[in-house]
Amino acid sequence: MNALLQVESLVQHFSVRGRRGAVVHAVDDVSFEVREGETLGLVGESGCGKTTLGRSLIRLTTPTSGRLQFAGTDITHLSERRLRPLRRDLQMVFQDPFASLNPRRRIEDIVGDPLLVHGERDAGVRQRRVAEMLERVGLPAGIAHRFPRGLSGGQRQRVGIARALVMQPRLVVADEPVSGLDVSVQAQVVNLLADLQTELGLTYVVISHDLAVIRHISDRIGVMYLGRLVELCDADALYAAPMHPYTEALLSAVPIPDPRRSAEREQIVLAGDVPSPIDPPSGCRFRTRCRYATELCVHVDPPLVEAEPGRLVACHYPRSVDLTLLSATIAERFGTGEASAG
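The structure corresponding to this sequence follows.
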């Protein structure tokens, strides 16, 4: 598959009010690609930078540095005027359906606003497009005249999806699309997203802390920790044999609906709290909570390299990998000094 979005060394820092020179390292040196027609999942603990990265991908925030290339066009520093024609292809489903919908506007106006912004002045055409989109996401046409306060959480999330898809975008970033919903409603929304992807040829970046949801919907999964991408590979490979110690710990906490298997599996409890993104640790950012950390991890930041074909990992001591092969890969890409350190 061709790459629809290419992300190179993306950095997103925010100044801290009242603290001169202090910055929040929300996203630090993240590189990957999103292939056309796939679903890329992003997982990690709260505060790891997933949402900030998602907003940066579609230029809701301007990156501090790095490069974003969408469909062959560098959009990193495009002005709002030049970026506007591309907005129809870059849309987002926001995390909280209770906060992302204007409570004073009717559903038909909320879903129809993107059409108006992009030049559709005919009210009749907008009304028809809104009705078609609401039907596609499983909502009755009569809901168009209601206000968000009269809808359930699942209905509001469907409205958010309808708003994102009404312009027929190519890339949709879905930030925690099922968090806060009942389990039965979660399944409905996840299945809806999958059906719409097949029907409309969409490409998704799905952000979630729920590893079960991410596994069900994703083709590939990226794991983030403290602003960094620490592992990226096919979903099946990640769940079968995680390589990064952080991924290993995350997966060990996923409930297994079999008491015998659950009792046999080791549950890894991470020590301490996530360090402050204002002052991240030296070397490997995960080292303060990693049971495999050594002196090397204190001083040398492991690069994100291809440990196996199609599998990227940022760790000096990845699980289930030939360290000799990994060392050679680092040497080839980053120089012999870092290879000998790793």
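Residues 321-327, 333-342 have pLDDT under 50 and may be disordered.
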